[in-house]
Amino acid sequence: MGLLNVREDIENARRHDPAARGALSIALTYSTLHAVWAHRVNHRLWHAGARSIARAGSQFARFMTGVEIHPGARLGRRFFIDHGMGVVIGETAEVGDDVMLYHGVTLGGTANAAVKRHPTLGHRVLVGAGAKILGPIALGDDVRVGANAVVLHDAPSGTTLVGVPAKPVARTSPAELPQIEYSI
């Protein structure tokens, strides 16, 4: 976790949360950022072969933050969890850049075998509070998932999914989505 990522994460929190006050306050009080920062360390340990230490670290981070991220999961840049209590991200989950999750989201598996069993989220995906995305499915870029939706199937880019089980209600071209500018 380099200094650049920490600054980028703090600025990203400021962009996503109108209640964010200052860089120091964000760095000290945003438990979801602490969970992501701990994940980066645990992910490196996991891939360096120190899997027991990585798992212990991820469980400690869960205890401290209420966010459970398996050290094998892959998270993109500017990943943000708003009010993250109860978020669970499984081992083979892959999350693109500029993704935002709300509290209670699960990126869960549907198999007990050592295979790809968790979802893959594209870039700029937004997942509403309490949503469950289950299995080795793929959500394209710019997908929106409504609160409490249960997603069981792939969705192409620009789709909005709602309901149980989730169904598409709209597709939006990337040009129609609000554009976020990032500076480093």
TrEMBL record:
Superkingdom in the source lineage: Bacteria
GO cellular component, one term: cytoplasm
InterPro entries, per database record: Hexapep (IPR001451), LbH_SAT (IPR045304), Ser_AcTrfase_N_sf (IPR042122), Ser_O-AcTrfase (IPR005881), Serine_acetyltransferase (IPR053376), Trimer_LpxA-like_sf (IPR011004)
EC number: 2.3.1.30
UniProt pathway annotation: Amino-acid biosynthesis; L-cysteine biosynthesis; L-cysteine from L-serine: step 1/2
Coiled coil: none
Family: Belongs to the transferase hexapeptide repeat family.
The protein's name in its UniProt record: Serine acetyltransferase
Species assigned in the record: Agrococcus sediminis
